[in-house]
Design a protein that fits this description.
This protein is of the alpha+beta class and about 325 residues long. It has a single domain, classed as Deoxyribonuclease I, Chain A, CATH 3.60.10. Strands 3-4-2-1-15-14 form a six-stranded mixed sheet, with helices on one face. The protein has a five-stranded mixed sheet with strand order 5-8-9-10-13, covered by helices on one side. It has a two-stranded antiparallel sheet with strand order 6-7. β11 and β12 form a beta hairpin. α1 packs across α8. The radius of gyration is 19 Å and the shape is globular. It starts with a strand and ends with a strand.
Length: about 325
């Protein structure tokens, strides 16, 4: 079985108010990429992935008239994808939903949130709030997810039961800061919130592992070791918190072991000063110990670092047009 996670930048811009694809020459939101070009590029990428299930991060919007599920299923139909059924969890206000597009002939997937909305100090439900003191002021911080993680109960055709959690943790970037001091304060505040979200998510994972569940955590964690100068203030990254001693992702482990030098990357952003690109490892698929015996094999579909992607010119171009992130896939015997 192949599972994948893919952050699709500005996916919501490709759909009209009735959740149909807009394939025209209007700008998509991607720099110098039209809606037609991005839609066609995404069709190439999703077809090449040929995954049994894809976690779509920054999925199309759910709102008063729009439906994430309907938009993704229209997208799948337009490109005749096997992964043609969609499921999502709690909607949010950011126009960047989290959803799973899957092949219903291969698996079943049901939104199955865990925890209570009140009275749960350890790991409340993800659409509620979490109280934690992250510093030394003896005052609790109240943390909420702007994008509540997607919790799914999955059963494969082989009868394997899984808990799949799809996450998009808060960005640490100081958006809206007008000067260096404001940027510093906002960056530190954002990192504190992100770490709190990681602790909340890790406690949920601990509960599942304690209950004997097989757990897969995937998505855009907006973090990795050594990505900003404020990490030393808190001692570790949110990725390290989530990995703990028992989850495994080979790209994350390699990056942790090699703070200096080259390491895998899953995203490529133009530099603000307009000179070159910044690359980062932001997207992960982490497995609980019980799944490590199922012959897992990870792959980052990077157009320059993956030999097959590089050799296939159409796919290489599509990956660059489709999003500023690249898919991460997992082949596993489940």
């Amino acid at each position: 079985m192949r599972l994948a996670t893919y952050n699709v930048e500005w996916f919501a811009n490709l759909f009209d108010e009735h959740d149909h694809l807009i394939v025209d020459d209007g700008w998509s939101g991607r720099r110098d990429v039209t809606r037609a070009q991005q839609a066609e590029a995404l069709g190439v990428v999703f077809s090449a992935l040929d995954a049994d299930a894809v976690l779509v991060v920054e999925a199309p919007n759910t709102g008063r008239n729009q439906s994430t599920v309907r938009a993704l299923e229209h997208f799948a139909a337009a490109f005749e994808l096997r992964a043609r059924r969609a499921v999502m969890g709690f909607a949010n206000d950011t126009h960047q939903e989290i959803a799973l597009l899957f092949d219903p002939d291969i698996l079943t997937a049901q939104h199955d949130p865990v925890g209570h909305t009140v009275g749960d100090p350890e790991a409340p439900r993800f659409d509620s709030s979490f109280r934690i003191d992250l510093d030394v002021d003896a005052t609790e911080d109240i943390v909420r997810f702007s994008k509540p993680p997607l919790e799914l109960a999955i059963t494969t055709g082989q009868g394997t039961a899984l808990r799949l959690i799809g996450a998009h943790l808060k960005s640490k970037a100081p958006h809206g800061a007008r000067n260096r001091d404001a940027a510093m304060r906002l960056s530190i505040a954002n990192r504190r919130k992100q770490l709190a979200q990681a602790i909340w998510l890790r406690r949920r994972i601990d509960r599942h592992i304690d209950d004997g569940d097989a757990v897969i955590l995937m998505g855009d964690l907006n973090d990795g070791p050594g990505l900003d100068e404020y990490e030393h203030l808190f001692g570790r990254s949110s990725v390290e918190i989530l990995l703990g001693d028992d989850l495994y992702d080979p790209h994350a482990r390699r990056a942790l072991q090699r703070r200096l030098g080259a390491h895998p990357t899953t995203a490529r952003f133009p530099r603000y000063e307009g000179n070159g690109y910044l690359q980062a490892l932001l997207d992960y698929i982490m497995l609980s110990p019980g799944l490590m015996s199922r012959r897992p094999a990870w792959r980052i579909w990077h157009p320059f670092d993956d030999a097959q992607c590089w050799e296939m010119a159409d796919l290489r171009q599509a990956l660059l047009r489709a999003s500023d992130h690249f898919p991460v896939s997992l082949d596993i015997d489940i």
